[in-house]
Every structure is written in structure tokens, then in C-alpha cells.
Amino acid sequence: xxxxxxxxxxxxxxxxxxxxxxxxxxxxxxxxxxxxxxxxxxxxxxxxxxxxxxxxxxxxxxxxxxxxxxxxxxxxxxxxxxxxxxxxxxxxxxxxxxxxxxxxxxxxxxxxxxxxxxxxxxxxxxxxxxxxxx
Length: 134
Description:
Blueprint: H1 3-28, H2 34-54, H3 60-74, H4 87-107, H5 109-115, H6 120-130
Domain DUF1232: 63-97
Organism: Mycolicibacterium litorale
Subcellular location: Endomembrane system
């Protein structure tokens, strides 16, 4: 695997993650500012993941889950190939959602809130996505 293939794989994974989060936001229907929050939730979520991964006070399992999620997203292949309409991105969306839910439940709402870099509405959307109560 060349460096360019790795870079393209990571870029594609980030784009797929963003798309999955936008779809989740549309389904969850945040109160207002959907477009702004949809655009902001991926960078905020990535910063949240980085901050949680760096927090040594959280259980090791949280950091392991985040590392596995990033490895999966960086892989150039998926469970269902992305060229298959709708279903191709569904596996990414399901895995991202499951990983975020697992991390959120293990780390707890207080840890997420302490590390969240975005707006309150973005955090509320993240809580709805992960199934936590804000």
C-alpha cells in the first residue's frame, strides 16, 4: 500500500463518517440550525475523539474502541463496498454510530461534556446519536 492510497483511504473514511453523521442529524432532527450543525459535527466529533483518546483518566477500553474505529475507517475496504448504492455507506454509518455509542456509554456523559469542543446544540445532537441523556 502506498502513502497516497493510505491518504485517500483516510480522506474517504472521513467523508463517509461526515455523511453518516449528516444523515443521523437529519433523522434525529435537531431543534434548529441543521445545516450549521451538520457541517460542524464532524470536526467537533473528531476533536472530541482526539481529546477523549488523550485523557488518561478514562478507562483504557475507551481509547481502544476509538483506535479500532479509526483503523476501520482508514481501511480501504468495507464490509459492504461503497459503490453499492445506499447500502455501501450503511455499514460505515452503523459502525460509527455503534462505536460512538459504546465510547459514550463507557466514558460517561460528564466526560463527553468536558471534552466537547462545539456548541450546546451540537452536543445535544451527539447525545441523541449516542443514545445518552443530556
